Amino acid sequence: MADDLVFDRSTDAEPGLAVEVAPLVRRIVAPNPSPFTFTGTATYLVGRGTVAIVDPGPDHAGHRHSVLAALDGETVSHVVVTHTHMDHSQGARAMAEAIGAKLVGAAPHERFRALHAGETAALEAGIDHGYRPDETLADGEGISGPGWSLVAVATPGHTANHLCFALPEARLLLSGDHVMAWSTTIVAPPDGAMGPYVASLRRLIERDEDFYLPGHGPALRNARVFARHLLGHRLMRESAIRGRLAEGPKRVVDLVAELYRGLDPRLTRAAGLSVYAHLEDLAERGLVATDGPPRLDGLYRVS
Fold this sequence. Notes:
The chain is of the alpha+beta class. Helices cover about 30% and strands about 20% of the residues. It has helices at about 60-70, 85-90, 90-100, 195-205, 225-245, 250-260, 270-285, and strands at about 20, 25-30, 40-45, 50-55, 75-80, 100-105, 135, 140-145, 150-155, 165, 170-175, 210-215, 220, 250, 290, 300. Strands 1-2-3-4-5-6-7 form a seven-stranded mixed beta sheet, covered by helices on one side. The longest helix has 24 residues, at about 225-245. The mean pLDDT is about 95.
């Protein structure tokens, strides 16, 4: 099976500049570029006159100033959060208080499972445990303003509380970190889980939106085709892991070395977490085995 996944790593986004990226939507990129955030977190202004701010980004005074300056007298009814990673939600409360808006969206952070004895969360530093919304939006619930509405679409996987938001008036989806044009999504147990991530991908493929505005990187056209390719990529990775294990027991570090040849060394840890997420999912399905609960340093074999 060929991997048809092709990324768009165009970098035309200038931090701090409000750009109209779709009808009813402006984007402002935060100045927090990194190997994990690409050019920075995308903050979206939805609507005109009375607007919602989606993913206010890190708690960065300069970014907050850029967002408020772009509003130019407009009213903000809601600050909306897709999920509780610092680069998306850390600045939410300060933004909401600065403009007197209601903070809504994802639930407070929860892991998919409890930590195993002696385990620490791999991406603990990036989790926003202090986030507390004024109102949590469940799947299908939403908010609205003049000429626009945002409807929550539950997409657990990257985090347990991850939400995308449909904007029906523009027939698009604000896809957060679930689907991005520039990269695959990090799925890192115990805060992320591969089984739910894949199920959420399948859910988006079945929806009508074909234009996504992700939490990082450029807009995504023909989004359902891309999502199908993402799904195929994940299934190919799973198949490759099972194939390697059929040769004999291996650890995550062995599988990363064999499956990710030529990988940017800065991304080795992220690749290991992705492999670990696949192994944990395969173990839950009874397709691989390890001694005790699945661990990042465990030895895995075919069941």
